[in-house]
Amino acid sequence: MPGKHARRHLSQLSEFERGLIIGMKPAGWSTRRVAGQVDRSECAVRNCLEQWTRECTHARETGSGATRKTTKREDRRIVRQALVDPTVTRSTIPADVGVAFVP
Prior knowledge:
This protein is mainly α. Helix content is 53%, strand content 0%. It has helices spanning 4-8, 15-24, 31-38, 42-55, 72-84, 93-97. Helix 3 (31-38) crosses helix 4 (42-55).
């Protein structure tokens, strides 16, 4: 399949791949050889090993960032309001839609 390798580097390492990396490196494999075996970049292998030595875990953390202030339904209402009336301002949308949020 053309382009498969080009997209693979954008996906996250699976738990299995992380386990392989952590197992191969102490067995004496070079970073380049491990990267070739799991078909990932050397940078991804180094990052995985760095996380292992820093945190003693290979598990990914859950998503970080701010918690949602509006529901998906409220988001759709905000977008619809902006599309219906393109002259509406950012400060009047919460009052029109009935949602309180901080810009």
